[in-house]
Amino acid sequence: MQERISPVRSTRHISSILAGSNLDRKPFVSLIAPAYNEALILQDNLSLLCDYMRSLESDYDWEIVIVNDGSRDETGWLAQEFAQSRSNVRVLHHRVNRGLGQALRTGFSGAQGDYIVVVDLDLSYAPEHIGVLLKKIQDTQAGVVVASPYMTGGAVSNVPWLRRVLSVWANRFLSIAAKRNLATLTGMVRVYDAEFLRSLNLRSDGMEINPEVIHKAFLLRTRVEEVPAHLNWRTQKSQPKQKQRRSSLSSSAKLMRHTWDIFFSGFLLRPVMFFILPSLLFFAMSLYANAWVLIHCWTNYQRLAQQVRFPDATEAVAIAFQQAPHTFFIGGTTLVLAIQLFSLGVLSAQNKSYFEELFYLGTAIYKRNQDR
Fold first, then answer.
1. Whether residue 346 sits in one domain with residue 229
2. Facing residues of 93 across strands?
3. Number of H helices, E strands in the chain
4. Contacts 24+ apart (CB under 8 A), 48-55
5. Whether residue 314 sits in one domain with residue 233
6. 185 and 126 in one domain?
7. What span, in angstroms and rounded, lies between the C-alpha atoms of 148 and 168?
8. Pair (46, 35) in one structural domain
9. What is the pLDDT of residue 4?
10. Residue 360 pLDDT more than 80?
11. In sequence order, what are the residues at sequence separation of 6 or more whose Cβ sits closer than 8 angstroms to the Cβ of residue 119?
């Protein structure tokens, strides 16, 4: 069977041939920094990012694109003031808060780099992760490289226990659903190959944009890599206690929505799992209940056989139903549910296969139209 080549890989190969005269040009890196109510830490942390990127200038040209996502404090004004004296720092504004997904999509569309690095302005991942991410994506030619605190060599510090546990298990759940050996699928801090990223038509408005990109990378057979990272929430301590309390309440309110988003993302990655596994569970329950139905019927039939030479089998069933009607109900209901869920699983597997083919074709057409 002929191997199917990713449209992203094929165009990347062609562009690398045509760009022979530019091989000595330093790669251009765009840092995307979404910001929402970050006035207290904005300029200090941007200065740290700029200082670190200057240390990489022998290898990369760079820019920072700040996306002010409708902040209610002075984030927008402070970001604009910071950018005025720096030609490679730009600020894009949303008039209202539109969510992380839309902020990233705005940043992606405004980025000019060959590589696009998403950073968290609270610097919960230290700036030094940027260099590690860039080296990994160049060495592996991956489409995405994720900073992973949950893989071997990674670390987590100062993260609330409940949030940490939920995050670890959410990523494990998505890894199982995706059938991939990845420890972190939800992390925001990562580097993208810009050509791959521009081939995607992203739709998510919230935090679910991160697993969405990974999902579409898998569909396009694009390589996804991880590097060990240290997630450290130390910067949260520098905020006033009142703001910390508001931030904690806001985070708790978003946690349930994010949990649902993770569950739904898992369904998109592997819908069969959500039908076949429950169907097998219901089938096992049905076997257990119906086995007791048969035992009750056979016992009553033997009792009737002691009184009548050829007893009526339906009478034995009727007596068994009177003795334990719940076993009949449970056995029948679970069997019907098992058959229906198994059928839905087969249909979902077929539909997922059709969707992947259509998505692959649609991406190739979308990419071709962009290149015109």
1. no
2. 68
3. 12, 9
4. 48/123, 48/127, 49/119, 49/123, 49/127, 50/86, 50/89, 51/127, 52/127, 52/128, 52/130, 52/131, 53/29, 53/127, 53/130
5. no
6. yes
7. 11
8. yes
9. 46
10. no
11. 31, 32, 33, 49, 125, 127, 130, 189
Mark which of 269, 299, 333 sits at the end of a domain: 269
Same domain, 199 and 94: yes
* Rounded (10°) angle between helices 241-269 and 161-178: 20
First vs last C-alpha separation in the chain: 31
Q: Which residues of 286-322 are buried (b: 16+ CB within 10 A; e: fewer)?
A: beebbebbeebbeebbeebeeeeeebeeeebbebbbe
Same domain, yes or no: 104 and 135 = yes
Same domain, 212 and 299: no
What residue type is 282 in one-letter code? F
Strand-pair partners of 229 = none
Give tens-digit pLDDT for 288-343. Answer: 999 999 999 999 889 888 888 788 888 989 998 999 899 999 999 999 999 998 88
Please compute the mean of the pLDDT values over residues 208-224 and round it to a whole number.
88
Q: Containing domain of residue 306, as a range?
A: 272-371
8 Å CB contact between 148 and 196: no
Q: Is the pLDDT of residue 23 over 60?
A: no
- Asked if residue 321 lies in contact with residue 280, where contact means CB atoms within 8 angstroms, the answer is no
Residue with the two structure tokens 């190959």 = 193
From the CB of residue 271, how many other CB atoms can be counted at a distance below 10 Å? 19
Domain boundary (231, 251, 269) is at 269
Q: Say if pTM beats, i.e. exceeds, 0.85.
A: no
What percentage of residues in the chain have a pLDDT greater than 70?
Answer: 78
Work out how many domains the chain is built from and give that number: 2
Distance in angstroms (rounded) separating the CA atoms of residues 142 and 208: 21
Farthest-apart Cα atoms in the chain, separation: 104
Does residue 138 register a pLDDT over 90? yes
8: confidence class by pLDDT, cuts 50, 70, 90: low
pLDDT tier, 47 (very low <50, low <70, confident <90, very high otherwise): very high
